[in-house]
Amino acid sequence: MSQRPPAPPSLAELREEIDRIDEGMHRLLMQRGDIIDRLIQVKQTQEVGSAFRPAREADMMRRLVQRHRGILPLDTVESIWRVIISTFTYVQAPFSVHADVSLGESAMRDSARFHFGFTVPYVAHFSAAAAVEAVAKSKGDLALVSAVSSRIPWWTTLEAVGAPKIIARLPFVERADHPAALPVFVVSRVADSAMVTEVETWSVRVSGWNAEVAHALSPLAEIVAVPDTAFDGAALLVSIAGANRLEKIKLALIEAGASVRSTALVGSHATRYTVPPSGSAK
After folding, report:
1. Same domain, 87 and 111
2. Which side of the chain, N or C, has fewer Cβ within a 10 Å radius?
3. Residue 180, domain member (yes or no)
4. Whose CA is closest to 93, among 47, 135, 58, 30?
5. Domain end: 139, 172, 196, which one?
6. Which SS3 state, helix, strand or coil, does residue 120 take?
7. Where residue 226 falls among pLDDT bands split at 50, 70, 90?
8. Among 175, 183, 169, which residue's Cα sits nearest to residue 274?
9. Residues 229-280: pLDDT tens digits?
C-alpha cells in the first residue's frame, strides 16, 4: 500500500520558521558588533584615521555576488551588505560622507545612501573642490565625486604629499539597472595596506589637447578632462590598469601631437566587477 505524501507545512509553521531565521540574523549582527568592539581595541582604529578599507570591501562585494542565488534580488542583498559594512565601519571610527552635488543631487544622494546607509552623516557640497577640501581638513571623512565628468580639475589638489587620494570607485559591483549606478570616486585618507592598486588614477597636465587627442586616448583609459584654454591644454584625470600604465598614456599623447607638462599619482582603486544581464557573476 502506497503511503500518502507528507502534508505541506502550514502558513503558521512557515511564519514561525521565518521568525526563527530573523532572530538568528539579529543575533549574528550583534555578535558581529561584539567582534568589531574587540577589533577597535586591537587596531586602535581611532589613531589611523578612516576605518574604510576599500580593498577588503571590494573583495567582500565580489564574493557576495559569486555566492548569491535564489529569488532575492541582488540589488537587495548588495544594499543590505553595504549598510552593514558601512555602519560597522562608522562604529569603528565615525566619519561623514561629503558629496559633490554640482552635477545632480538626486543621483549622488542615491549613491551615498545605497553605499553608506543613513547612519553615516551625509553632507552636500556644490562643488567637487569643496567636498575634497572638507575631507582634507577631516580625520577620516570621505568625499564622493563624479568619476565621468567635471567642471573643474578638482583632482590636482590630490597631488601634494599628504593630501587625500582616490581610494575607490563606486559601485563596487556594476550591472544593468543598478539602483545606484552613478560612477563615483571616493576620496579619503586610509592606511597604505588598505589600498587596492588594480587601477591607478593619475593627474596629467597636457598641452595641445583637442578632440583628436582625446579620441586617441579613449581606447587606453578612462579619462575626465577639463580644458585649459589659457595654455591650449587640459588637466586630465586618467584611470589606467595593466603594466607600464603611465608610459603607454604618455606615448599615446605624444603620438597624437600633444605634450605632457606634468604627471602625479593621485590614487588607485579596484577594477570594475561587472555582472552580465543574466545575473551571473563574471
Report:
1. yes
2. N
3. yes
4. 47
5. 196
6. coil
7. very high
8. 175
9. 766 899 999 999 876 789 989 999 999 999 999 999 999 999 988 887 664 4
Could you tell me if 216 and 191 lie in one domain? no
What is the tens place of the pLDDT at every residue in 134-151? 999 998 899 999 999 998
Domain co-membership, 152 together with 208: no
Contact 267, 196 (CB under 8 A): no
Q: Phi then psi for 74, rounded to 5 degrees? A: -60, -35
In this structure, the chain runs to a length of 282
d(C-alpha 263, C-alpha 203), whole Å = 6
Residue 114 burial (C-beta neighbours within 10 Å; 0-12, 13-18, 19+): buried
Q: How many domains does the chain have?
A: 2
DSSP E strand boundaries for 13-170: 97-100, 122-125, 142-146, 165-170
In whole angstroms, give the CA distance from residue 107 to residue 111: 6
Same domain, residue pair 53 and 95: yes
Residue 72, in any domain of the structure: yes
Chain segment 26-46, per-residue pLDDT in tens: 999 999 999 988 888 877 654
- Per-residue confidence at 282, pLDDT binned at 50, 70, 90? very low
| Tens-digit pLDDT profile for residues 162-192 | 899 999 999 999 988 899 999 999 999 988 7
Mean of per-residue pLDDT scores for the chain: 89
CATH number of the domain residue 241 falls in: 3.30.70.1150
Helix (H) or strand (E) holding 65: helix 54-67
Kindly state whether residue 276 falls inside one of the protein's structural domains: no
Residues 230 and 93 in one domain: no
